[in-house]
Write a structure and sequence with these properties.
It is a single chain. The protein has 479 residues and is α+β, with helices and mostly antiparallel strands. Helices cover 54% and strands 20% of the residues. The chain has three domains: 201 residues, no CATH class; 193 residues, Alpha-Beta Plaits, CATH 3.30.70; 45 residues, no CATH class. It contains twelve helices and twelve strands. Strands 3, 4, 5, 6, 7, 8, 9 and 10 form an eight-stranded mixed beta sheet that branches. The chain has a two-stranded antiparallel ribbon with strand order 1-2. A two-stranded antiparallel ribbon has the order 11-12. The longest helix is centred in the middle third of the chain and has 51 residues. One of its GO terms (molecular function) is adenylate cyclase activity. This is Adenylate cyclase.
């Protein structure tokens, strides 16, 4: 019979060692009653019961030999579990407890099944089995104990009477109660320590999640997700992939920076980046970097929906950015910014080298290659509000997006002139049934995307347009 501190599965296989849970920088001690001490307590209780029974004549004289066995077995079990090949067994505690159950069964049969001492010993064994290994351990422990009882009764037979003297019964009950109380106290201490450890681990987990979300602001969401889910290792490595690469900048930003105060310029630029980032993430783009007023985005890594879908998503993002820029320009104009800011964009599709570049202690997840240079070149050649794409991109999107041939350009790194195309709009939005309309003059701007307008908003817009039309007509008549 041995003690039963709460088992931490893989942390408690060595008898006599205190258990501890590491929680970040601190260690929460879990004070167990070691198996060695618990077994000594249990077998000493059994020895006291034997001596009491022999003195009162309820047990035969030969059972005094069991006292010596009870006092020696805890030391033998300790040596077996610490100094033999069994010490490497992950379930040494359960196996040693099976031996205790077998020995306890032999003892119960040896004293002739005298009721209260037998029940007391059986209770200590079953209590230990339940705490150490649960129902499964209890079930097998009872089996081993029953086998020991059957073997012993077959040899010595049952006692003449199953009743025991009052003093022997009191000693048996008191010994069992002491063992159970001491073991339960240490189990309670372990449970409290484990709850404290669980609370600390939960707090550290919440802190780690909060910190990871803060760090995620410095990475593209897709890259952050792949790192924190374990899909990607943080080491210097690259691979070749076919990606759609996007560059954009603001035409007129240099002139605006000369007119505005740095604080106001910073607020405007951050607002622009925030709005464009939301559009990029909406279409699944990996935001590479912001440089000045430029944005670099690529599609196809860490996740890809296929070359055609990646290219289409990239160009769709560019079209929405161009439309969204009209809304932002009106908002800036209402804030007193008169310089007409327009976005220009370039897109190229092809094989690039993507991955972690830099040093072991400072990495940058980015892409390099001639397709990156081509996308940057297309962006610098684009007119305000224009989206230029390479031939590779055009071939992947031409069935869904209308493009206009813009001839060829010479780009460093390409042996032949490169055909380029201007993105006009989605084919579904061309013609009289198009959902997007825009018209802009000095003193007037209209941006309409009918797919995004609710019925209630449609009535309000119609009323505003009718009011504006009536006013223009009256002013024309007065003129």
């Amino acid at each position: 019979m041995m003690s039963a501190p709460a088992d931490l599965r893989n942390a408690s296989s060595c008898a006599g060692k205190s258990l501890a849970v590491e929680t970040g920088g601190s260690t929460v001690a879990i004070p167990p009653m070691p198996d060695y001490n618990g077994r000594i307590l249990a077998y000493t209780s059994a020895a006291v019961i034997i001596v009491s029974g022999v003195l009162q004549g309820v047990f035969p004289q030969w059972t005094l030999w069991l006292v010596a066995a009870a006092l020696l077995w805890p030391h033998i079990a300790h040596a077996i579990s610490r100094r033999t090949f069994l010490r490497q067994s992950p379930r040494i505690r359960q196996k040693m407890l099976f031996a205790d159950c077998m020995g306890g069964g032999v003892f119960i049969g040896g004293i002739g099944l005298v009721a209260i001492p037998s029940v007391s010993v059986a209770l200590m064994l079953m209590f230990s089995c339940l705490i150490v290994g649960g129902i499964r351990q209890w079930f097998f422990g009872v089996g081993f104990m029953a086998a020991g009882v059957a073997a012993s009764v077959a040899v010595v037979g049952p006692a003449d009477t199953l009743q025991s003297p009052l003093l022997t019964s009191i000693i048996a009950i008191a010994s069992t109660g002491l063992y159970i109380c001491v073991t339960a106290f240490y189990s309670h201490q372990q449970a409290r320590a484990l709850m404290l450890a669980k609370t600390q681990i939960q707090n550290q987990r919440e802190q780690s999640i909060a910190l990871s979300h803060k760090l995620s602001k410095y990475l593209s969401p897709q890259v952050w997700q792949s790192i924190f889910t374990g899909e990607r290792d943080v080491r210097l490595e690259t691979q070749r992939k076919k990606l759609a690469v996007f560059f954009s900048d603001i035409k007129g930003f240099t002139e605006l920076s000369e007119e505005m105060e740095p604080e106001a310029l910073t607020e405007l630029l951050n607002h622009y980046f925030n709005e464009m980032s939301e559009v990029a993430l909406k279409y699944g783009g990996t935001i590479d970097k912001f440089v000045g007023d430029s944005i670099m985005v690529f599609f196809g890594d860490p996740t890809s929906r296929g070359q055609r879908a990646d290219a289409f998503a990239c160009v769709s993002m560019a079209i929405e950015m161009r439309k969204h820029m009209k809304i932002m320009r009106q908002k800036w104009r209402s804030q007193g910014i008169k310089t007409p800011l327009e976005i220009r964009m370039g897109i190229s599709t092809g094989y690039t080298t993507v991955g972690n570049f830099g040093a072991e202690n400072r990495m940058d997840y980015t892409i390099i290659g001639k397709e990156v240079n081509l996308a940057s070149r297309l962006e610098s050649l684009a007119e305000p509000g224009e989206i230029l794409v390479s031939y590779e991109t055009f071939s992947l999107i031409k069935d869904k997006i209308m493009c206009r041939d813009k001839g060829e350009i010479t780009v460093k790194g390409f042996a032949k002139p490169v055909p380029i195309y201007e993105v006009v709009d989605f084919r579904r939005d061309m013609g009289p049934n198009r959902s997007f309309l825009e018209h802009e003059h000095s003193g007037f701007a209209m941006y309409l995307d009918s797919d995004k307008i609710t019925e209630k908003e449609r009535e309000s817009i119609l009323a505003a347009l009718e009011d504006a039309a009536d006013r223009l007509r009256r002013e024309e008549e007065d003129a």
